[in-house]
Amino acid sequence: MVSYKEIQASNALINDATAPRVAVFVGGTSGIGKFTISALVATGASTRIYLVGRRSSEERMRAFIQELHAINPKAEVIWTEGEIALLAETRRVCEIIKSKESRLDLLFLSAGYAPFDGRNETTEGIEITQSLEYYSRMLFILQLLPILSKAEAPRVVSVLGGGLERETSINLDDLDLKKPGNFSGVNAQVQYVAMNTVTLDKLASDNPEVTFCHTWPGWVSTGNVRRGVVANSIWGWFVRLLLDPIISLVAFRDEESGQRHLFQSTSAAFGGRGVPWQGKPGQNSLEQQANGLFLVNYKCDCTPNAKVLPLLREKALKKVWDHTNEVLGPYL
Ligand SMILES: NC(=O)c1ccc[n+]([C@@H]2O[C@H](COP(=O)([O-])OP(=O)(O)OC[C@H]3O[C@@H](n4cnc5c(N)ncnc54)[C@H](OP(=O)(O)O)[C@@H]3O)[C@@H](O)[C@H]2O)c1
């Protein structure tokens, strides 16, 4: 485990030279993304953050941005409105960012929730949380890779369940879980976690100039479990009366979660580039110093998941990659 003291010491080294000069946060309108933005801005470093979110959160975010500006006037936070569950909107947002920036240092992806309220699709026909947690995230990466690769130490962080993937996690005959009986809140989360890992692992090996992390945040009391349940259902009551209070008891404090994710977004512990790190280097999915995906858990420890990943590469990668390209093709 990387201790909280070590995390704080590393983040204290973030300054104008080491902070991500340009960062994009998708999912930063609440929870872990928002805590990470607060931690980054609180370093006092000069940084420009594109905070991407849906219109319904804009008013709330305008107040948040004002607070951030008071804390650190050198941090510029740019509200960028977009319905990011939609791939056409994701592409539009990426085009805006690419028209303004020639380089991108950090892409932080944390939108999503577990869909215990059943299968609900976007107007583009994709299950909403699969879009938020997988397709839209991959589209952001593919669209922004050209400017990511122009930065000195570019990094992509996808917050979901890195390290939790298993050999049997992915239903290869039904990647979008559309067939009757295949969809449930649990199946969906398991499938989207593993699809994240399989695709990020390929992107990491194809783009060695970019550091990729798939992180599992542990419990953080953000209200995330309440998002995917119908309020007056049995699940809704179970979550509200039992699960949510238990999570609040065992969860990381908001600030620590933000600091830990800032560490994962900036430290050279992951791949050797970034804020200098004297501790044990994180091991990636190719078990090398660089050029592989970092599966990082809530303790900021890495696992190469060495028994599972080679099997996923052999059995799942081609199907997942081909299907992902089919879905994303019209938006690339
Ligand atoms: N918190 C945990 O304990 C935990 C544990 C394991 C994994 N995770 C996963 O880690 C990720 C981040 O978790 P978190 O706790 O930070 O989540 P969170 O606080 O619930 O934030 C989720 C983000 O997703 C956005 N979002 C939700 N539904 C949307 C929709 N239909 N269209 C567009 N945006 C939407 C939210 O936007 P608005 O602000 O506009 O609503 C928000 O920015 C999630 O995928 C979560 O499932 C969380």
TrEMBL record:
PANTHER family in the cross-refs: ALCOHOL DEHYDROGENASE-LIKE C-TERMINAL DOMAIN-CONTAINING PROTEIN, YALI0E05731P
SUPFAM superfamilies, A to Z: NAD(P)-binding Rossmann-fold domains
Lineage of source species: Eukaryota, Fungi, Dikarya, Ascomycota, Pezizomycotina
Keywords associated with the record: Oxidoreductase
InterPro entries per record: NAD(P)-bd_dom_sf, SDR_fam, Sec_Metab_Biosynth_Oxidored
GO terms for MF: oxidoreductase activity
Protein name as it appears in the record: Uncharacterized protein
Pfam families in the record: adh_short
Keyword ATP-binding on entry: no
Keyword flag Oxidoreductase: yes
Species assigned in the record: Xylaria flabelliformis
